[in-house]
Amino acid sequence: MSNGASSRLEFLGQLAGGLAHEIKNPLSTMKLTLQLLQEDFSQDKSALAMRSLRKIELLLKEITHLDEIVQEFLRLSRGHDLKFQRTDLGDMIRELVEFLGAEANQKSVTLRSQLEGELDGIIVDATYIRQALTNLLKNALEATEPKGGGEVIIRARRHSDVVMVEVIDTGVGVAHANRERMFRPYFTTKKGGTGMGLPMVRRIVEEHGGQVTYESVEGAGSRFVLLLPVDPNRRETLQAMIRVSATPEAPATPAAPRSRRRALEVKPGSPEPGETQAGES
Fold first, then answer.
1. Full-model pTM
2. pLDDT at 172
3. Nearest 10 degrees: Cα torsion 170, 271, 202, 131
């Protein structure tokens, strides 16, 4: 990228950040004013007051949603102040499976992990990598909901100086028309979604020197793949790993052979070696 183009992008980023701040300030004032009105009307039990309260609650909900969008935008435009430290990625994944276990049970989803090889000593910002994995796992759980349940697997393995993490679900998959837009800011198919989750995941992973890819079969499920260097200062091995074994294959069609679909249509069963399931110690 030329210096001129780089400077222009930096200027646009600063401009967008400033605009977001200008939007955030009146939003805060509006929210505070509505909360004061809500407190006043709550003392009045008349029909007019009750109708006004319902409208205030609706406005507060919309302002909260707008505020979330602005906050996500600011985080995305600024980037993250990463604090790298040696992290046991296996422990992090086991904790996430346990943490999301109750939500998975409510949705009739089997949530489990498959961990291979040495996953301790990975140099990452643990807070942001946890955020990225949590986002992918929650998306996977939500993708199974329209089908009345299913299975979600988070799988991690280390290959030389690269770690590959996969999040696989047997949910509804991604509609073909939406596949090119999945990582675009503000694009969402979820009611009440901000459309900033996947762009944030990509930003976090790329700031670690990694890469995110995915494949999906509409009606059968999806597989998201995160590639992370074990040490951000040794990123040269990442491209080799991508070429050798980690680039997802082209998405299969619903009529694909059973062997091709097996990665997406995981059948429930007893945990395999190195595998943990929500609710297990």
1. 0.62
2. 87
3. 110
What single letter denotes the amino acid at residue 170? T
Superfamily of domain 85-277: Histidine kinase-like ATPase, C-terminal domain (3.30.565.10)
Strand stretches in the chain, DSSP E: 85-87, 109-116, 122-124, 150-159, 162-169, 211-217, 221-229, 275-277
Give the residue from 95, 263, 100, 38 showing the smallest Cα distance to 169. Answer: 263
Q: pLDDT per residue over 57-112, tens digit each?
A: 989 988 887 777 677 666 666 666 778 999 999 999 999 999 999 999 999 999 99
Apex CA 148: angle with CA 143 and CA 153, to 5°?
50
In this structure, what DSSP letter does residue 151 have? Answer: E
Q: What are phi and psi of 217, to 5 degrees?
A: -120, 115
Question: Does residue 129 contact residue 207 with C-beta atoms inside 8 Å?
Answer: no
